[in-house]
Each structure stands twice: as C-alpha cells, then as structure tokens.
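Milestone 3.1: sequence recovery, worked example.
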C-alpha cells in the first residue's frame, strides 16, 4: 500500500518561469484574493502552482473543482501526470484562463489526486 501524496506548495500567481538551464521555477506575482468592481467578473489569466511529494510511481490524475457552495463544487480542470519516484517533487503548473466569478464571495477549491482530496481551500473574490 502506498502512502497518500503530500502537498508541498499551493500558490495562486500571475505566472511561472522555468529556467531552461537549471530547471528552477520562478513564481511571479503571488496573490491570495481577487478584487473587482463589477460582477459577473472574468479573470483573464492566473496560474495555480501545485507541488506534491510522496506520490507513488506511475500515472496519476489531478482534478480541481470550484464553487461558491462548498458541498457542490463544479469540475474546472482535470489532467494526467506521471510520477517517477515518491522521492521526487512534482510541480504542476495549471494555467487558468477566463475564469468567471458570478458574484463576490469565498470560492471553495477542491484539489484531488486520483479522486482522493489533497487540499480544500478558498479563493476570496471581493467587491
């Protein structure tokens, strides 16, 4: 039996630059909430950077759901990824384009790996 993947980092930011020489990731413009004067509001572009460790070797599936109602989040993103070893950190860069927020509030984000919850957090959207 394998242990559950462990969350190493979760960031909402403007972008991630990967240095072609070293492979190091530079995180650009970290933010924790969104502000808009008008609703519904469409945020043009953001990145959800996720780093996980202790992930069993082989193929995996990440899913992110979001909603104002924590009990009924809607699917937003699903993608496959591979793990070479549980000793390797896996950085998943998720580009989110034209995300609509119908009203202000605390939007619940649910991040799952292989249909198991890894993180439940909020993204605050204010007027």
């Amino acid at each position: 039996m394998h242990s559950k993947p462990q969350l190493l980092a979760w960031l909402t930011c403007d972008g991630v630059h990967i240095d072609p020489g070293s492979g190091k990731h530079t995180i650009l413009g970290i933010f924790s909430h969104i502000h808009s004067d008008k609703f519904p509001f469409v945020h043009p572009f953001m990145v959800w950077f996720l780093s996980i460790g202790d992930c069993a070797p082989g193929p995996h599936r990440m899913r992110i759901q979001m909603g104002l109602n924590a009990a009924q989040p809607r699917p937003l993103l699903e993608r496959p990824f591979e793990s070479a070893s549980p000793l390797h950190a896996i950085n998943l860069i998720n580009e989110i384009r034209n995300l609509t927020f119908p009203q202000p509030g605390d939007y619940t984000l649910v991040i799952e790996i292989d249909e198991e919850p890894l993180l439940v957090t909020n993204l605050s959207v204010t007027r």
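The mean pLDDT is 95. The chain has no helices and ten strands.
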